[in-house]
Design a protein that fits this description.
By secondary structure, the protein is an alpha+beta fold. The protein folds into 2 domains: 92 residues; 230 residues, BirA Bifunctional Protein, domain 2 (2-Layer Sandwich), CATH 3.30.930. 39% of the residues lie in helices and 18% in strands. It contains 11 helices and 9 strands. β6 and β7 form a beta hairpin. It is rod-shaped and about 135 Å long. It starts with 8 loop residues before the first helix and ends with a helix. The chain binds phenylalanine.
Amino acid sequence: MSETSPETSLDFEAVQNRAEVALARCEDPEQLESWYYATLGRKGEVQLMSRQLGQLSAEERPIFGKRVNALKQALQVAYEQRREEIERQALERRLSAGAIDVTLPGRRPRTGTLHPSTLVLRAMCRIFGDMGFQIYRSPDVVTDEYNFEWLNMPPEHPARDMQDTFYTRDENVVLRTHTSAGQILAMREYHPEPIRVVLPGMCYRNEQITARSEIQFHQIEGLAVGEGITFADLKGTLTEFARRFFGAERQTRFRASYFPFTEPSAEMDVSCFQCDAKGCRLCKYSGWLEILGCGMVHPVVLRNGGYDPERFSGFAFGTGPERIAMLKYGLDDIRAFWGNDLRFLTQF
Ligand code: PHE
């Protein structure tokens, strides 16, 4: 470069050509920066060329100066163009890498599913709803009177032992041990009008948790009160329910039982749907599955609800959806319902 002379335009062209070839080889912003530093930077080739100005004669200087400036400008323009090109290519690469391939199968969004207890409760409420029963919501926390006393279980009544109770700090306030606790509330709200309601809800019992018993479970209670209601109405309603819920082929039978709040009392069995009543492990080779407790509302309970037992009669029943879901789906551990294991919960 020391021999550079303003007369030899070749040198300018040679520098420009070399710089342009090197520029075209730049592939990314880092290489571009190095090129700029080496070419147009403060210690770059072109800058070094312009230093030679001092060695030139007065006539040569303006010509040389013009040419150096033209070279600088040309390379600056080339540099900007190349930078835009590199940016555009990078953008294109990013776009094509993230492009949507419409031929790929879609990703299914994960949606929640209803809890098996909810499914069974809703199916039951729908069937009773079709038969004219309304849903009656009643509280989980009640006084002793609703859960026991007004249901014909005075203090010290031995039937209270059947249901180990969770008490609050106020000894008179309990977590309901059965949905029957809502019967009195419904009666006091409706009397002296006739009633046809189902009461779904969570119940609580202070028991050892095992595969067969939990401290919390759902029940769905049914209550019908009116004039002239008989045990035949009870049998008809529950048999129809069993057929709709378990299938038209199912048989039902009623066994005498005891509950303090119904008289007479019964338990309903449905013919085993696993073995069609031939006998299997599920029905313990009896051919029958016990599914609910029921009876005619006790006169004392009717009176506590505001109805005159001389004029009114009624029936009530109570059943547990978890137990029924276990029978229906062949589950052997009730703890799965509150275990929060999605592998279990999403199966239904
Ligand atoms: N409440 C009883 C129970 O929890 C079931 C029942 C309800 C029985 C209504 C008769 C009438 O076992």
